[in-house]
Amino acid sequence: MDNRTEKALSDLLTSKKYADICPDTVKNAFFEQTKRHGKLKDADKAARAHLHAITGAFISPDELKNAKKALSEWMAGDEDAFVRAMLYHSSTRERVQIAEKLYARAFSACEELKTILDLACGINPIFLGKMGYTNVLGLDIHAGCAQLINECAQFFKWNTRAKAQDLILNPPEEEADITLMMKLLPVLETQKTGAAKALLENIKSRYMLVTFPTQTLGGKKVGMERHYTEWFEEKIPETHKVIDRFVIGNELAYTLERK
Ligand SMILES: C[S@@+](CC[C@H](N)C(=O)[O-])C[C@H]1O[C@@H](n2cnc3c(N)ncnc32)[C@H](O)[C@@H]1O
Hints:
Blueprint: H1 3-13, H2 23-36, H3 40-56, H4 61-75, H5 80-86, H6 90-95, H7 99-108, E1 116-119, H8 124-130, E2 136-140, H9 143-156, E3 161-164, E4 178-182, H10 185-189, H11 195-202, E5 207-213, H12 224-233, E6 240-248, E7 251-258
Parallel strand pairs: 1-2, 1-4, 2-3, 4-5
Antiparallel strand pairs: 5-7, 6-7
The structure holds S-adenosylmethionine (SAM).
């Protein structure tokens, strides 16, 4: 690697926006783009755009800071601060009004769920903890989100833990009664063609909960329910069958069980 390339990569790794992301994810995005772009400047720009699309778009450094503040207020006894904190990540923001209904419906189709593996979890394990699901392992490329989850878990004495992990570069090995893949698979597929199917085929849990957005981050309805229905149903692994499918709010959900 020449000095200019080394400096560009180091700047990206330590930038305010991406310092909290798994270094392997950042390096991989950077090197992929240097293969595609002749000019270093263009590769750097494309790597930043890619990282924004797969993680930065869902929670910015300022939103993370605000979420941390709201969670500290919640831990200090301000009950309203919990919802405020959930509003700082786009996925929990979109789900905040419907989360209890969504989980009640999805989990009612399953027998006893003691352990949950939440893949690309964002800050969702905090929501699960608040609802009484306190035995969760969350994995996400965003170490800042993992830290918030671990701080809450420690404070409330939950068994929940989170760690920074790239699900493509380092596929999960953990077992749990149910694996959650909420609003994840399309994001994964943009990183590597075939990644969604490969992940699904690697899941060891008896149950899976897989969800999709039915509108864009900007709030547009553009036929996403139908699109993701067709896209997902041909990727369902032979080991599992759909035991429930429903739409709540702007989220399409599938509950699957091992055959
Ligand atoms: C749309 S958000 C969904 C968050 C959470 N599952 C929820 O529904 O509340 C997508 C999440 O995927 C994470 N992510 C993207 N690519 C990933 C990868 N390769 N490995 C692990 N996490 C990833 C992002 O950081 C982001 O938190």
